[in-house]
Amino acid sequence: MKYLLLLVLLSFGFQTISFAQDNEAMEESLDTKYREDQFYFGVSYNLLRKMPSDMAQNGFSSGFHLGFIRDMPVNTSRTVAFGIGLGYSGNAINQNLYISKDSQNNLNYTVVESGSFSKNKITMHLVELPFEFRWRSSTAESYKFFRIYPGFKIGYLFASSIKYKGDLGEFKLRNIDDFNDFQYGFTLSAGYDKFNAHIYYALNSIFKDQAKLNSQTLQTSIIKIGLMLYIL
Question: pTM here?
């Protein structure tokens, strides 16, 4: 009986030690200094606001966005962080604002009937600096959590084009001077797991003050509404 009791106690002791070692190994394997959501990919539908009278969008105006944001947690649980990064944004805007150059290379703006052309598209390519304040319900054990990321983004326009095909001919303009070189606005991403709703609300116009339609300065700005995917 004594030997049986001793055998039971030894067996229990070995199991306890093994369980403790497994827990220690699991704790060591967990990255308690983890960072979240450092790469992003997004798509958006681009809406124009403050358009002049009779100006309208037509077709689907899309955006594609990607980049890296350095995640910098500020609390021990790493659920609150700041983020700063570098990214790219490509945007297409289909609308009926006819932009052309005259013989003196001056830019002229006219609103044309939507049925008079098959293509009238502005394309913009920007390098962007996103800043985010990040809250999330993350843990070191789980990759699925809620997040709310308000922020601010400033972009530098490094390339642009205008393509027109219609009753007035067919042409392409590149890198016109009337687009604002710097475009900036507020951002918000919110959701669960990898996919999140995203909005960008521009605070300035896509045009410089020199761009005028019927002697009125064009103040048209952009809102981007879409989905954002965060990984790693």
Answer: 0.85
